[in-house]
Design brief:
The complex is a heterodimer of chains A (about 475) and B (about 250). Chain A has one domain. Helix content of chain A is about 25%, strand content about 35%. Chain A contains eleven helices and 23 strands. In chain A, β3 and β4 form a beta hairpin. In chain A, α3 runs antiparallel to α8. The longest helix of chain A has 17 residues. Chain A is globular, with a radius of gyration of 22 Å. The N terminus of chain A is likely disordered. Chain B has a domain of about 160 residues: 3-Layer(aba) Sandwich (Rossmann fold). The model of chain B has no long low-confidence stretch (mean pLDDT about 90). Classes of the chains: A alpha/beta (about 475), B alpha/beta (about 250). At the A-B interface, α9 and α10 of A face α2 and α3 of B.
């Protein structure tokens, strides 16, 4: 019945697949010490950073690509990738960004012109194209509050003490294969420091755009929330439609000190490839937060709709007593997409609390896996966790898998886990259609209902964007 | 005499089983038609065939509504044209706010009729009286659609949808099942309020209890996929006493 129309209804077009027509400086594919020297020189980095990069590369060379995830792909040829690409005529002055880039960002719905933003909903943006940050808005205004918001390259030059202290402190250099690769070749990303007691006066965001062909994007983000501070940070991303796979291997480190809070939201919309699995981004990302001090709080919210492959487990180390970690996720796989995503909650401090809400949606040939670890150390007296993992299947060729792992050394800890798998039922669709609602609207209504708990965690304008994106991903024209 | 809906020689199957075997029925404007019959006679199949349910495969015959065949129409088109089914078992849809659903349905209908869509405030104003009449608490519409609703709440919610959408042909499939006496009275009041001399009701029921509240104009007895008898309300007490076996085909 309804399923006939359903496949066309869930193979939505990728609307952000355009290419920015700019000249690009790109180095020859290949990865060795010279590549790192080139990157480090381009970034005008101090010698200590290059030394760290080389150390990371040496470690990476001893490691092997992991294949334990529920993902099927041919091993990546790391020597065939170019590790640095930047729009030409990149000039330090912020006023001289190539108009074509500004235009492209406008097209993505992001204004890099501070004057053009609506009053009241200021969002500071770091715009990263391929390997470089092209512009960071509102830096001056944020500086008045003591907030540092700049590209990681600038931070390495201008705030070396902070970078040396915190970079690799949450995700060690050789934490895993992709993190080690990133540590060697990372090119740009965002650096944020919120000083003691400051509530960041606006939303901060980074928008990552892969544009050049045959490159990977390896960004690194470091956010430090000093004691009693608060920040809400959002990241978005997209890439042109291309026949080849492109690699994105990022590292995000969050440090939350006593009484501080970071809310980190992601709307991931990398090019997903086509329905036969041709093209699309390979997204191998390591994201981790540490709640260092008492009462620290971190919340990860992610809406994952893009990428051919997603391998990503934003995690929380709850070290401070009474610290709180949250993970809210919607992962959509349609076409031939595969996602293996989830979280790790490591309870170390007393009375630490974690919440996991994961919603997986699979359609067409999409494969969706939730993989999560809740670990309660013996020191974590009174720790609590609540996990809820729900899967929604649309059609009969897709799959949903759930792998919850639990390690508890504290006998007093409370751990609750609930998991459901449901199908959009023909009865649900018919009920809505009998009330005059089209099949397409009915599907989107059911899917939105399913995702509600997660969307309600997003800042308002991003929730609107996430809903629209979901609609776009799951809806085409019903035939 | 004008006819709202005409079902001619309808044959339909569900899966491999033919259920309707040449069913004929005419529905008149402003009248209440009760369909009665034993289990398995094809009562629910008939209602599903009228609304275009995916379970049904029509093998032959025709259904015309306001002079046009609707056999080839999509379910949502039939709904927008004014055919409404109150489900026997309304399905639960988690996370979908009831008010949002109701407003979407109403606005789909208004759009179809070329009317302005209602905003949230206008919509809530429309709802208020209906909720009171049906004895529904106002929080019912802020809950998820049918999720965790009791049997009575689900049926009230069906009637609420009927009141809002103002359909022209209203099919009530076992509307009284699962209702206590108070709920039955409120639901019936909602239904009776919709009687305006033009709307047509098709009341599908096992038991005659509901017919004490919604007075039928015609009783059609359905057996083995056909209407075997059509009579006035005087047939009800006879059926109560003798059951369906004693009915002779017209």
């Amino acid at each position: 019945m309804a399923n006939e129309g359903l496949n066309t209804a869930v193979s939505g077009e990728y609307e952000l697949g355009f290419e920015i027509d700019i000249e690009t400086d790109i180095i020859e594919p290949g990865l060795d010490v010279d590549t790192l020297k080139f990157i480090s020189k381009k970034k005008e980095e101090p010698a200590w950073m290059l030394d760290l990069r080389i150390k990371a590369l040496k470690k990476w060379e001893t490691m092997i690509e992991p294949h334990w995830a529920h993902l099927d792909y041919t091993p990546i040829d790391y020597q065939s990738i170019s590790y640095f690409a930047a729009p030409k005529e990149q000039i330090d002055s912020l006023d001289e960004v190539d108009p074509k880039i500004l235009e492209a960002y406008e097209k993505l719905g992001i204004s890099l012109d501070e004057q053009k933003q609506l009053a009241g909903v200021k969002v500071a943006v770091d715009a990263v194209v391929d390997s470089v940050s092209v512009k960071t808005t509102y830096s001056a205004e944020l500086e008045k509050h003591g907030v540092i918001f700049c590209s990681i390259s600038e931070a390495i030059r201008d705030y070396p003490e902070l970078v040396k202290k915190y970079m690799f402190s949450v995700v060690p250099m050789a934490d895993n294969y992709f993190a080690a690769l990133n540590s060697a070749v990372f090119t740009d990303g965002t650096f944020v420091y919120i000083p003691k007691g400051v509530r960041c006066p606006m939303e901060l965001s980074t928008y990552f755009r892969i544009n050049a062909m045959n490159t990977g994007q390896f960004e690194r983000t470091l956010i430090i929330a000093d004691e009693g501070s608060h920040v809400s940070y959002n990241e978005g991303c997209s890439a042109p439609t291309r026949d080849d796979h492109q690699l994105h291997a990022a590292v995000v480190e969050l440090v939350i000190l006593k009484d501080a809070e970071i809310k980190y939201s992601t709307i991931q919309n990398w090019y997903p490839g086509d329905e036969t699995g041709k093209g699309g981004i390979y997204n191998f990302v390591t994201k981790r937060a540490i709640c260092e001090g008492e009462n620290a709080k971190v919340s990860w919210t992610q809406v994952e709709t893009g990428s051919a492959i997603t391998w990503k487990y934003p995690s929380c180390i709850l070290k401070g007593d009474n610290s709180v970690g949250e993970f809210y996720s919607v992962a959509v796989t349609t076409l031939a997409q595969q996602a293996d995503t989830g979280t790790k909650m490591i309870h170390i401090g007393k009375n630490t609390k974690s919440t996991i809400i994961s919603k997986g949606i699979s359609a067409m040939k999409g494969q969706n896996t939730y993989r999560g670890l809740v670990k309660i150390n013996s020191s974590a007296v009174g720790a609590r966790n609540y996990s809820e993992c729900d899967s929604l299947l649309i059609g009969s060729e897709c799959g949903a898998h759930t792998f919850p792992y639990l390690e508890s050394k504290d006998t007093q800890g409370q751990v609750e886990h609930e998991a459901t798998t449901s199908k959009i039922s023909d009865d649900q669709l018919f009920y809505l259609r009998q009330r005059g609602i089209t099949e397409e609207d009915a599907v989107s209504m059911i899917v939105h209902g399913f995702c509600k708990q997660v969307f309600s965690q997003l800042p308002m304008e991003y929730a609107v964007e996430a809903k629209a994106l979901l609609e776009l991903t799951l809806e085409g024209s019903v035939g | 005499m004008s006819i709202t809906m005409k079902i001619e020689n309808l044959e339909a199957k569900i899966g491999d089983k033919q259920i309707l075997k040449g069913l004929n029925l005419e529905l008149e404007p402003g009248k209440v038609h009760a369909i009665m019959g034993p289990n398995g006679a094809g009562k629910s199949t008939l209602s599903k065939a009228i609304v275009g349910h995916y379970d049904i495969e029509v093998l032959g015959g025709d259904i015309t509504y306001k002079g046009k065949s609707i056999i080839e129409m999509e379910a949502e088109e039939r709904a927008l044209e004014g055919i409404f089914l109150s489900f026997q078992h309304p399905v639960e849809i988690p996370g979908v706010n009831n008010a949002y659903f109701l407003r979407t349905a109403l606005n789909a209908k208004r759009k179809h009729q070329g009317k302005e869509e209602l905003n949230a405030a206008e919509f809530l104003r429309e709802m208020k009286g209906h909720l009171e009449m049906l004895g529904m608490k106002s929080d019912m519409i802020s809950r998820s659609l049918n999720e965790g609703f009791s049997g009575g709440e689900k049926k009230r919610n069906e009637i609420l949808q009927m009141l809002i959408l103002e359909p022209e042909v209203i099919i009530l499939d076992e509307i009284d099942s699962g209702l206590d006496i108070d709920a039955l009275r409120q639901v019936s009041e909602g239904i009776n309020r919709m009687k305006d001399g033009k709307r047509t009701f098709l009341v599908i029921t096992h038991y005659s209890r509901i017919l004490d509240y919604i007075e039928p104009d015609y009783i059609h007895v359905l057996k083995d996929g056909k209407v075997i008898k059509t009579a006035g309300p005087e047939l009800v007490p006879y059926l109560e006493e003798h059951g369906y076996d004693g009915i002779k085909e017209d």
